[in-house]
Amino acid sequence: MGVAFIEGLNDPYTTINNVDSSSSWDYASNITDYNQNMSNKVSTEVSKMERQFGITAKRFDWHNFKNDSLKRLFRHVATIGLAALPDDKLENATSLSSKMAAIYGSTKVTVGKDKDLPLEPDLTRNMKEVGNYDKLLQTWLAWHNAVGPAIKQYYIPYIKLSNEAASLDGYDNIKSAWLSDYETENMTEIVDKLWEDLSPLYKKLHAYVRMKLKEIYPGRLPEDGTIPAHLLGNMWAQEWGTLYPHLTMEDKPLDISKTMVEEKWDAQKMFHAAEDFFTSLGLDNMTSEFWSKSILTKPEDREIQCHASAWNMYNGDDFRIKMCTDPSIEQLRTVHHEMGHIEYYMQYKHLHVLLQEGANEGFHEAVGDLIALSVATKTHYGKLSLLKPTDKYNAVDLLLMSALDKIAFLPFGYLLDKWRWTIFTGETPFDKMNEKFWEYRIKYQGVSPPIKRNESFFDGGAKYHVALHVPYLRYFVAFILQFQFHEHLCTVAKKVDEHHPFHECDIYGEKDAGDVLKKGLSLGRSKPWPDVLEIMAGTRQMSASSLKKYYEPLEKWLDERIKNEVVGWDKANVQDYMGVPSFANKVDFSAAAVLASIGVILFCWKNISL
């Protein structure tokens, strides 16, 4: 009976996913009251249908099934999230989520004389103005002071309801529910060990960057060894690639983004370049519906959610990307990342709809980034005419450029959920959330707030994935997996030997490597992730060894340059950063309330960029 029940769900779940994705797309790509209302109605009806399926699934003794695949399917159906709540609480949770999404997506702030600046593109552009200390500080404060406190008032009741839903699903709390995706009892210990292995390399990069920032901002960095969060080129200090021109030892730094502009790269050229790489491996072309229905640049006639995302519309051919693309090396990586999701969708579309997911959340995020590792080589940049024979650069320049995004991201990817878990479990009370956030930012990332903060702020809430309650551990896992995948595929393609180092491997056109990739992707969620990892990486264990091997030349280069630097920030204490700030932008709660009243649907969240 269990098999018949699951088989009978394929068609209704396919229909549900199609309708839900379609209504979510309509709103995300055209923010209007009408689309919001329609999506809210669909979301409510979908939740009620999922609740009924979940109730039926729980009548089976599925925990004791001997068929692991069937057990995995039943776990999926029986875990219904917010839909487990009674109707009144479900509507409340949906409303709270909508308000947080509205605040995050619609907030505009004033920086100096510039008014009504949205996060994208204006504030993001501001954060890249290396050397302009005051503008960086004003921009950071404007965003965090406006968004965080406005989110906080809805976040606390939302977490209470989400924890209640997790309990109704049979979990202790949201942390347990989120980690259940990995089907691994010791997942927290696994990621702790991975971070322990990687933190020495991160601290070396941190020490080098801090040394160079002291030259740019003399007397501005704290004596405890931390780096102020607004000085790293990114609103959340999660990627530091903007700093590259100021960190390289070359007189004329590589500027691939500038070359892209000069060579007239646009969104179409960037997406076709990504498609060409995937098809060179024997994977699929994008469908005609992809090209006709995707939104690849920001429309001028309407508001949309610009955060890049990949969409599966669950009809076999309709796959889409929504992205406000600009020609830059960072955006080229994002294009490959999002198209990696689409390729994954296409490879597992033959499976039961409940198995049309990544082997675990990290797999889905790793696929496109895996390809981007090949793109970020001198050979492939040369193929794309983005590196010219006359370009001069140190042999480790491309590794440094890569590490400023890859290595720099690791502690942030590790700590964001680690922080939220303490809230979900009650370890961190609601009146200490901001202090705990900065405790972890300092402890793991060596990043401190620009000025003193307190509990009237909610700086973690100024991050997309917190405001929208999206798990973040997947990105940390993905950054580990992509290097394991890459090393295995490079080995299969015979592209690594004593004359061809790992970090220079480009698997473009290597069909044997593509066959391995395709085999792993086609399994979707049908097998435990260690089984899929064995196919795609040649091992059943996640390991930091491939990542460390990739950056070995850079680590040696860093060692030579930080001989006189104190590596780490052992004396840093979060209490030194808590208190009443000497100045801060006032939070316009009335404006936040107006924005909240706009309302945003509870999206059926797709695979999104970090």
From TrEMBL:
<feature type="binding site">
    <location>
        <position position="337"/>
    </location>
    <ligand>
        <name>Zn(2+) 1</name>
    </ligand>
</feature>
<feature type="active site" description="Proton acceptor 2">
    <location>
        <position position="338"/>
    </location>
</feature>
<protein>
    <recommendedName>
        <fullName>Angiotensin-converting enzyme</fullName>
        <ecNumber>3.4.-.-</ecNumber>
    </recommendedName>
</protein>
<feature type="disulfide bond">
    <location>
        <begin position="306"/>
        <end position="324"/>
    </location>
</feature>
<keyword id="KW-1015">Disulfide bond</keyword>
<keyword id="KW-0862">Zinc</keyword>
<feature type="binding site">
    <location>
        <position position="341"/>
    </location>
    <ligand>
        <name>Zn(2+) 1</name>
    </ligand>
</feature>
<feature type="binding site">
    <location>
        <position position="341"/>
    </location>
    <ligand>
        <name>Zn(2+) 2</name>
    </ligand>
</feature>
<dbReference type="GO" id="GO:0008237">
    <property type="term" value="F:metallopeptidase activity"/>
</dbReference>
<keyword id="KW-0732">Signal</keyword>
<dbReference type="GO" id="GO:0004180">
    <property type="term" value="F:carboxypeptidase activity"/>
</dbReference>
<feature type="binding site">
    <location>
        <position position="474"/>
    </location>
    <ligand>
        <name>chloride</name>
    </ligand>
</feature>
<feature type="binding site">
    <location>
        <position position="365"/>
    </location>
    <ligand>
        <name>Zn(2+) 1</name>
    </ligand>
</feature>
<keyword id="KW-0121">Carboxypeptidase</keyword>
<keyword id="KW-0482">Metalloprotease</keyword>
<keyword id="KW-0479">Metal-binding</keyword>
<comment type="similarity">
    <text>Belongs to the peptidase M2 family.</text>
</comment>
<feature type="active site" description="Proton donor 1">
    <location>
        <position position="465"/>
    </location>
</feature>
<keyword id="KW-0645">Protease</keyword>
<dbReference type="GO" id="GO:0046872">
    <property type="term" value="F:metal ion binding"/>
</dbReference>
<feature type="binding site">
    <location>
        <position position="365"/>
    </location>
    <ligand>
        <name>Zn(2+) 2</name>
    </ligand>
</feature>
<feature type="active site" description="Proton acceptor 1">
    <location>
        <position position="338"/>
    </location>
</feature>
<feature type="glycosylation site" description="N-linked (GlcNAc...) (complex) asparagine">
    <location>
        <position position="67"/>
    </location>
</feature>
<feature type="disulfide bond">
    <location>
        <begin position="490"/>
        <end position="505"/>
    </location>
</feature>
<dbReference type="GO" id="GO:0005886">
    <property type="term" value="C:plasma membrane"/>
</dbReference>
<feature type="binding site">
    <location>
        <position position="182"/>
    </location>
    <ligand>
        <name>chloride</name>
    </ligand>
</feature>
<keyword id="KW-0378">Hydrolase</keyword>
<feature type="binding site">
    <location>
        <position position="337"/>
    </location>
    <ligand>
        <name>Zn(2+) 2</name>
    </ligand>
</feature>
<dbReference type="Pfam" id="PF01401">
    <property type="entry name" value="Peptidase_M2"/>
</dbReference>
<feature type="active site" description="Proton donor 2">
    <location>
        <position position="465"/>
    </location>
</feature>
<feature type="glycosylation site" description="N-linked (GlcNAc...) asparagine">
    <location>
        <position position="30"/>
    </location>
</feature>
<dbReference type="GO" id="GO:0006508">
    <property type="term" value="P:proteolysis"/>
</dbReference>
<dbReference type="GO" id="GO:0008241">
    <property type="term" value="F:peptidyl-dipeptidase activity"/>
</dbReference>
<keyword id="KW-0325">Glycoprotein</keyword>
<dbReference type="InterPro" id="IPR001548">
    <property type="entry name" value="Peptidase_M2"/>
</dbReference>
